[in-house]
Each structure stands twice: as structure tokens, then as C-alpha cells.
Amino acid sequence: AFSVSIDVSIKMLATDAPAEKKEGDYAFNPICMVLVTEVSKLIISAVLAVSSGSGSSENSEARKVSAADVAYLAIPAAIFTVNNVLVFKALGANETSVFGVFRDTMILWMAAIWKLVFRTDLGNIRMAAIMVIFAGLVVNQFAHQTAGKISWAFLIVIAMTLCNASGSVANEFALKRSKGLDINIQNAVLYTLCIAFSLALLLIDDPSRLTGLRTFFGGFNSLSWTLAGVQACAGLMVSRLLKYTDSVMKTSATCLRGPVFVAMAPFFVAGQHLNAGSIVSALLVAAGCFGYLSQGPIQTAQTDNKDVK
After folding, report:
1. pLDDT in tens, 127-147
2. Fewer Cβ in 10 A, N or C end of the chain?
3. CB–CB of 282/136 below 8 Å?
4. What is the rounded distance in angstroms from the CA atom of residue 255 to the CA atom of residue 104?
């Protein structure tokens, strides 16, 4: 629900942009929105860290952050910063029927990471599911080509899902390599790094936004502030999923958002329509995702060997 409401809100903000803006642009700078969200998450994490603290030696150990912890968290922080900006770019440049379907390609990137990095056999059922997902993507683009609406902007969605998948795996590794470290402390470090990367990106993209609060928040409205709050809550939930479950479970928990977004967006966003091709492609992608995730977490060869012992 969080994810779908975020996507719908962003698309509404892109649609409601002033006439002088190019199609797909926003009244505000998306990097400013990313910064507001990251600062919100940092404040919440800091409050949770302080409120859960005590004077025990065990809690003291759970709060010691090493240079290695910061270095490992810097990797997902950089990737997530790019991903967060690409979400706005992808929604602004694509129709909801394209974005919703291609967003679930994250499961393909997850499969590729496990196959290429961890050299894991995916099995016949997972491979068949991947083929079903790919068929759904082909149907989606064929439907848009038939309607004369073909666009290469879907590549932005694919780049976004690649960032999301690789960032999730990197973040999961960084969080779990120091299992004893308080999740709120880890999040505080991660969000501080995200703020630093976002500021650097804004300095390159639109330095005038840093000249004052009025220019920084220029274009924000009530929906923008609501969106920032919902994004902050969603981000805090995802970090806990990665800490206590895994990136595959996180993907499983959100695999229905694409089809739901495709179905709901036309009721909230002006100019968006459902057609047979969009519905079929969304159902194919959803079926492929469920087929893939029904096989459960992927086990590495190393894990399997340990089980044998």
C-alpha cells in the first residue's frame, strides 16, 4: 500500500506541474524531495536510537560504529541516492502502464545477481518464471507500439530497478555483517551518507536551490509533504525487512505493487488509461513474479554444503 500510494502521488505531482515545465518535470527539484525524506528518516532513527538506549554494556557494544561499517553502508547509500532520483525521472517520463509493469523487473536483476555474483543454480521453475515475466514486458511494449506510443523512456525504469536490486543486496550485506549493531544506529549512518550524496548531487544539478529555504522548497505543496512522510515510513520498514529477513523477501512483499499501480493509477492520474495490452502484460508479470518467489529464498552452494555437514 505504501509503495503504490508513493508511485501514484509522484505521478500526480508530475501531471500537476506548471505549464512552463517540460512534460515529465516537477514543480520542485526531485533531489530536494529526496533530501527532505532522508532527513526525516535520519531524525526518526536518531530518536529511536536515543529512546532505546540504556547504560548497559551490551547496549554500549550495539552502538559502536566502525570505519568498516561506514564504508560498507556508503555503497548502498550511493546506489539508493541514484535510485531515489530515478524513481521521479522514470514516473515523469513514462505512462503508468509502462512504469508499473517494468518496475517488477527488479526480480530479474535479483536473479542475475544471484546467478552471476553468487553462481547459484536458479532451477527450471525460476527460469520458466523469468520467461513469463519477459513475455509480459514484450506484450507491454508491443501494445504501446501498436498504439503508436513506443518510447525508450522505459530504459529509465530498468536502470531504476537495477539500482534498487543492487542497493538492496548491498544494504542487506552491510546490515547483517554487524548483526549486533543497533538497526537504528545503522540507519542513522546510512541516511547521513544518503544526505551527503544527495547534497553533492544537488550541488551539481541545481546549486541555486541551496541559496535559501524558499528556493529549496520552491514548488512543494501539501501532497509533496505527505509524499515525503510516506516515503520516510516506507524506507524505515524496508531497512527492517533487509535486517531481519532478506532482499528476496523484500522483493516478494512488493511484487504485487506493479499490477495494482497499473490498475489504480487511471482513477487518480489524469490522462492515464487502461487497455487490454496493459492488463495482460501486468497479469503476466505478476504471475511470473509469484512463480519465481514461490520457490523460496535461493540457497548458495556454500550454504548447501554447510547444511550437509
Report:
1. 888 888 888 888 877 776 665
2. C
3. yes
4. 6
